[in-house]
Amino acid sequence: MKKEVSSDLGTALVPKLLIRHAVPSSIGILVMSLNILIDTIFVGQWIGPDAIAAINVVLPVSFFIAALGMSIGVGGASIISRALGNNEKEKAIVTFGNQLTMTLLMTIVLVFFGLLFVDFIIPLFGGKGNLFLPAKIYYTIILYGVPVLAFCMMANNSIRAEGKPKIAMYAMLLPSISNLFLDYIFIYILDMGMYGAAWATTISYIVCASYILLFFISGGSELKLKIIDLKLKKSIVQQISSLGIVTLVRQAMVSVTVLLLNNILFELGGESIVAVYAIISRMLMFATFPILGITQGFLPIAGFNYGAKKFARVKEVIRVSFKYASILAVVISILIFFLANQIPKIFTSDELINKEAPIALKIVFSLLPIVGIQLIGAAYFQAIGKALPALLLTLTRQAFFFIPLVFFFSYKMGILGVWISFPASEFLAMIVTVYYLNREIKKL
């Protein structure tokens, strides 16, 4: 089998290259999404619907801290891809070393404060009433493993940046599989409840980190670190931060959105409606896996060829990525529409949840086919090192459109208005993205 090397990003046929990078990313995201989905089913069936809502309260906090690793990874990956495309291997290695130092320092500090203010944070994110105690149990244990998860997210992006998508895929598969296995032991067999769910997830992060460390230590990577590379370099840190802030802001907006929706839905319908949103958010993770996979496959190809000044290939990868993402999204949205009545019953037998969730699913997923345009459009600016337009396009969907719309529609239409805010914001964000992306492509 031919060994994967970074130079393939600038020479292989674009459709085949995109598939080669997008499929492993999609499989990794699929398995990770299935893990979250099945984990939610286990928790709902073996612990109860309140446990589903409690985990949904905790996820935005822990994922935001872990997203520091992802943002540092994506920001650094853009630099690494372009550096390798421009034959600047030493710059790529120094960037990776700085990524590692930044990730560990920042996440450890945030975990400390996250544990210190636990009793304030959980109610703030909707962990009220019966949800507070299970949310606190899950949150406290999960936070100990968040720096490990942040390292995994950072390193995974760097591995893809050097043209090794299969290794990145395996790094996502291992923790997902181990988490489900540990869920069965800790929750079902040992009856550890929320403690079991939390420890299963935390240990799975350690499994992922162990595999990634083995990859780098064994010499499989082109990014061979020296101790001196771990020393922070101002210019590299600034570049990583300016590009990584896009991903961090995106995750921050996800966390703010979850905080907002948990509180609005709790006031409108109580714990059951919060659980409906938890099911929808899990389905969004699951349903968008091929679109996210294409976006992740797109990033190193676009970045490498932009760095190598092969602009015709850059245009081609944008066009092909849009085509593949749209086709897959249409298929998924049709499936969800026809299976909307059956999906909630997989998670719980609660009558109110099973009555409300099908309506919500159909509305929320109605414009899924256009999501890829917005995601790939924002990713393009990140790939080529233009942080400001990437940041602004990232903010359009949730900050500029979704949050104002959810306040307006929920006030006018109640719970139904919350669900309508999803497709409305997607449509508006897509229009803005197409305009700016088209203007930028004309400059190539």
Query: What is the structural class?
Result: mainly alpha
Q: What does the largest sheet look like?
A: none
Determine the number of helices (DSSP H or I, runs of at least 4 residues): 16
Uncertain segments: none
Total of domains: 1
Calculate Rg over CA atoms. 21 Å
What is the helix/strand order? HHHHHHHHHHHHHHHH
Principal-axes shape call: globular
Mean pLDDT: 84
Helicity, in percent?
Answer: over 70%
Q: How much of the polypeptide forms β-strand, as a percent range? A: under 5%
Query: N-to-C terminal Cα separation, in Å?
Result: 36 Å
Number of strands: 0
Tell me what the structure shows.
It is a single chain. The mean pLDDT is 84. The protein has helices at residues 14-46, 49-85, 89-116, 118-124, 132-161, 165-189, 193-217, 234-269, 271-287, 289-307, 311-339, 343-347, 351-364, 371-383, 387-413, 415-441. The chain is an all-alpha fold and 444 residues long. It is built from 16 helices and no strands. Helices cover 84% and strands 0% of the residues. The radius of gyration is 21 Å and the shape is globular. The protein has one domain (9-441).
